[in-house]
Specification:
The chain is α+β, with helices and mostly antiparallel strands and 716 residues long. Helix content is 33%, strand content 10%. It has a four-stranded antiparallel sheet with strand order 1-2-6-3, sandwiched between helices. A four-stranded antiparallel sheet has the order 7-8-12-9, with helices on both faces.
Amino acid sequence: MLIWIHEKSRNRPVEFGPFPFEVLCRDDSVIAEEAKRPPSAINPTPFSSSMLGKVAQQYSAYFKEFCEGDSAPEKAPVPDSLVRRSRDIKGAIYYFDGSHAGICKIPPRAWLAGQPKNDHQFAVAISVAYGRLPEADNLAKQWLEGAEFDVAHLRATEISTCIAGYIRALGFGATAHVAGHGGIDLDRIAVLAGIAERDGDQVRSPFLGEHYALAVVTTDYAMAIDSPLGKSARVNGLKYWLGINGAVSGREQNRQSKRSTHLSRYPMEQVKRVERPTTLIIDDEVPRVPKRANFFMRARAGDLGERAQREVSRFATKHPITAGMISQMQCLVPHQEGQVADVKSPELSDPAQNARALKSLAYHMGADLVGICEVPRYAWYSHHLDGEPIQPYHRYAIVMLIDQGYATMEGASGDDWISGCQSMRGYLRGAEIAGVMSEFLRRKGCSARPHTQADSDVLHIPLVLWAGLGELSRIGELVLNPYVGPRFKSVVLTTDLPLEVDKPIDFGLQYFCSNCLKCARECPVNALPFGDKVMFNAYEIWKPDVERCARYRITNQKGSACGRCMKTCPLNKVVSADGSVVHRVGTWLGVNARWLKPVLVPLAVFFDDWFGYGTRNSVKQWWLNLEVVDGVCVIPKATNERDIDITRDTSGKKTPVGYYSASVMPHPNARGSVPANHKGAVERAAELETVEEAKQRIARGGERPAHYIPTLSIED
């Protein structure tokens, strides 16, 4: 009965990983066998000389700068239980999308011959599977063939440096070792840690064969260790195919392997396509806004008061996992710009072929959903933070979504200590993918630039809409996808390379969100509206109170950031072959049988609460609740441990929304604070049009409302 209601992995701890290693036999005698082997001279480095391979190697080199580093001056109050420590570290690796993770003690001969050793006693082995090669007639096939290791190696380097950074943030020593960099025998550690087995001179994974890249983190942080795999360790065919253990089933992996590589794992091709987004956008009235108007920028400038200004400086590093990856994120920013080759590759002349190839490349590198659109004028910010105007410089946008991780979100409240980490991990992965793709295109003679959380010249939401990856939701300034709901972060790559564009989608979300108030009900600061949509800056939108939302995310004292709306949304589900029957059928009907929505939506909303979706699943909480204060980890004074509350008032009468229209935005180069006036923002609701009023005004040729005009318009 449970598989009808819940996904198969519901009771599977995150630290078990996507493959059923727990069913394989173990043999501690392998430890003695490995001890007899002489030290290896080098780690294999099967790097390619292809253009894409060299770009991936270039980005790996950026991350390698963080293989070592200083540890926090004081050790964190970590659990005494070595098992709990291992759970945390393995959970983090799988949270970063590692394929396999294992832990062992380091024997003397595990160090490479002639390489310097450190005093670490423990090693964490990490493997990353190769992505699928595109089809023979796909342009990306020739880009990727031979470079599969380079791309997997990049991911392994990213994960290992983040894990090493995390352990150092806990106050312990840790060093990342990858192919071509480091002094540990990667293969030997993989065997000892139980993620690979030795077959003669070859080391293979029972699930991946030889198609993976390895990384190792050595550390003095004591953890429970794993036993090596036995010689007869084999995958159980039927259980593996059915996913009995809650691991990703062979059936689901087979389904994904049969889909064209330019398609995501989700059947987005089944979703209805339309000419325009399903919410009204008055294109020639949408104002271009300066970066200074972003509420996180406003917090840094002091617009939200001293407390928010103080807290925003540590917003991204309140948890030690995030503290361990923030340097990697920052190091990629200078490389968003780059030299364009003088000669454009002649192979890039067909827009349809280009679009197909770049989607395949993005999926190979780890994007979860990809769409392409032309960049509308209003999607460009109007001014940089220094007040310099931004003139649109590219025609097309490749929009990529990174799943924030269903399993981790299941274990969280949405605004506890892992919340900010979920965002930052998505931003890091997106920056990595878009950075590599942009540099690759530049070497092909095409101008290209990534737009990341750290540095973007474009607003992402309109591009996600136009690229056909979702519809605007009641969450307001958030787009929902029919298969991952709001559970993603976006990254954008703009270019002048000719591309075939996608159309916006319509899966009936406007009807669904009109009849579901769960995100608004569960918002801890009542920042989401309960009422109807309005016209705000020429968008039809359920407009959230962005000041209230940003202030809470920045100053949250019982967690880092907030994603309660994502956590509790009824569309935040697993809809693969391993998802529950109810969700798979419901999603299919929602996409393909729109006429049933008047019946299905009320039932879906009711049963979402009835079955307790949106509550915390303790099985999935792999992380430690810790807070970084002045560079040292401490036990937080409190932790948000919310579950859903179906009794909360949904009238919204006590918490009116504040509207910060373009006309009250700070000047693009405002240096001092421009205090946000929330009372005035609430009163500004009176000047907003309904959707019908806006349509009637347009029909009679009425003028653009004055509050749509920014403090300083780029057109002025």
